[in-house]
Write a structure and sequence with these properties.
Radius of gyration: 32 Å
Number of strands: 13
Order of helices and strands: HHHEEEHHHHHHEEHHHEEEEHEEEEHHHH
Largest sheet: 5 strands, antiparallel
Number of helices: 17
Helix content: 40-55%
Strand order of the largest sheet: 1-2-3-5-4
Distance between the termini: 112 Å
Amino acid sequence: MLPGGLVSGRGGSGGGGGGLWLLRWLGLRLWSRRGTLVFALLWFGSWLFLNGLVLVHRSILSDYCTDDKSKRILQRLCLEFGEGSVTGDMCEDLCVLGLVEYKRCLYYENGKKVIEARWRGNPIILKSKLENFSSYEPLGILDYQDAAEELSPLDVVFYATLEVRNSLGLAQAAEDEDEDEDEDGGGGGGRGGNSSLARLWEKKLKSRDTSFSRAELASLWSLLQQEEYTFLRVLQDLSTHVAKVLGSCGHFYAVEFLSAGHAWDQNIFSLEEARGSGARGSGARGSGARGRWSAREMVHRIALSFLDMVWHFDNDFTHRLHLCDIKPENFAIRKDLTVVAIDVDMAFFEPKMRDILDQNCSSDDDCNFFDCSSSCNLDKQRCHADRRNSNLKVICEKIFRPWFSPTLLGAKAGLPLQVELQRAVQECSETDGGVEEDVGGGGEAGRGRGVHQRLLNILTRLLQEGGASTEEGGAWEEKGHAHTALNF
């Protein structure tokens, strides 16, 4: 018993100290493990945070719009012009004569640079899809030493036409059209019969007799790789509803300065600015007429221009033109209240639109491409290639409905014509069909044409009842400097 008691006694008397020591030792080890874990987590979190800052700096801060960076970009462009690497019809004014005055940086977005300036006293917007000229794919034929000297204007037509067709999504369609015209002995008017947009470019380039320099070819090729430039440059000869390209230098091109719309403005556009800016370019008589228009009359005239643009884009080209990003910021108005599409990165002709919509799906939601939507064939799990909604429907939803809402109209909302207009806008926003001219009168297409005509009639009657002047402003014309495809 004694040994056992002794042992038991030692365990009883010294066990408290030993147990305390053991608990302390275990607590220290536990704290040590926790501390190590906490330290590791803090280190890992700091590593993630620092890497996140680097990523943010590279992807966002590096693309932040600043005047200093914009000026450096233009200085680099002038350096390349001085070296003979690039050229264009505004290079000398920008880099030598000082006739292009930098104003401010407007925005950078996904590499795209947009800068405000004045060229020979006129406000312009300078644009490029990429910051550096070297970022564009070079024209392969320039890899040969003497190719540029031997390249004829017809060769340039060939390469430029291919790039224009590919950029606009008209490559296969243009070939089919060529075959149709060969069979028919020439094209007529209207959709499907008028000459292709690429062919219009060909006619301009063919008028040049002399060969192109390496700088001209390289600069032209960098511009043709920018879908917006190609779209605007080719379309401006056919439409008053797109911004005009005024000139270029290397990979930068200049478009007319127009004040964009704003979602926060109840009238979308600055009507006071439009009313007061008519003296320059349209004559005093036109300015006086605009000065007498009320804000509501100006809105009605702008709405009529939207309807004209919709009809024009649906009918007046070989293929219907789809606008897939319809919002106030993407439109502007000229002094004569003509609506102009100023951001056409999301505008597609029918062949390219069908290719975009033709994709796998499990529901209709999978067939939406921004403002352009289709429906899902659940049996084939494939989106229909035909667009379901239309330019007119989206404009009614996003532009007309806020304009002509009872809340905005106030006391005038109950007037018979205003009520009729609200109902027509509501019907328009629920009608999928477009306003194409060559389709039969039945179905959604017939409804689309019907509601378009109804809106046109109501807005015209509102102008007549308001006693507005029937004088229309003339088309905007650039003064003092002509830009041609040859100067690109």
